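Page 42, continued from yesterday. The earlier attempt failed because a stray header line got pasted into the input along with the sequence. Redoing it now with the clean sequence only.
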Amino acid sequence: MSAFALYRLPHGDSYTLIEQTDGEPERLRSLSQLNGRSGFVVAPFAVSAADPLLLIRPDRVETIVPDDIPVGPHRPSPITPHPSSDYHIDFANYHAQLQEGTFQKIVLARSTTLKTNTVRNGRELFLDACRLYPRMFICLVSTPQSGTWLTATPEILLECRADRWQTIALAGTMKLEGDELQGEGEHVTWTTKNIQEQRYVATYITECLEQFTTDFTERGPYTARAGHLVHLRSDFTFTLPDNDRLGDVLQTLHPTPAVCGLPKRAAFDFILKNEHSPRHYYSGFMGPLLLQGTHLFVSLRCMQLLADGYRLYAGGGLLPDSTEEQEWLETEAKMETMRTLLYI
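This time it went through. Structure tokens are written below.
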């Protein structure tokens, strides 16, 4: 089995194939080992022997312009209205820590498995995702170590355009319905909880960037649409003295409070010890590093393709005033991004 990645940048009209034609991708012990390296990065939420940090060697790189074939009609994807028992236990545990002041914010994730006798071809799913979600980074990646994953994500972790670097603070979620789907979410009114959650992420990113540069600017927050959802987003642009320390920058940024929590180390350790559903490569990141540019995106709205079905992942940021029902419905709305592809 060769290792490959197919990706399409937001609003792109072509996609790129990167393939390692022999051997397995290189395993790295930490993000700092990406300093001075190039290739296609596949990073988990937490680097471990079971979920290694991978670097796909670009033996073959090809840019492809797909045929403009419209996506067929799809049936509404099913929604599970009530939390599962595992989610109920996890929410109670996480929320108690917030009430006690252990964390300012913590992200609770979950997964669900959909069984089927016929698993769709990953490249077909990738192309359907490209057509359905023009605003998002679409990526299909497959390696012997990680298995096969598809993501449609709006969240930039680290990107370079015209000699300036960019990252974003993305948090807060609302679902667009009815006539709202005709716009970009410009009429959405954000709750105090969503505003506070996004501000935590923006403050964290500011503190991270201050370790590497004094030349950065923040724009936002503003409402950004991603599929049928909208989020609060702030854009950070900055310069770096050189590109030799990108691994150190990534080590500092990842995981952001958008997928982890605050304080970061305590929340990270708590998640690894207490979350019922292992995240694997969900809420990690992937993309090309110093390879036709750098475009690294957080692996949200993703699913793992299995031999007998699919495993979908989603999460949401909890604050002291979060409620279980609202948070569960938010994860259902996020899973709908991938579920929709299975009901075309």
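Notes: The helical segments are 85-99, 122-132, 192-209, 246-253, 264-274, 324-342.
Reminder to self: strip header lines before submitting.
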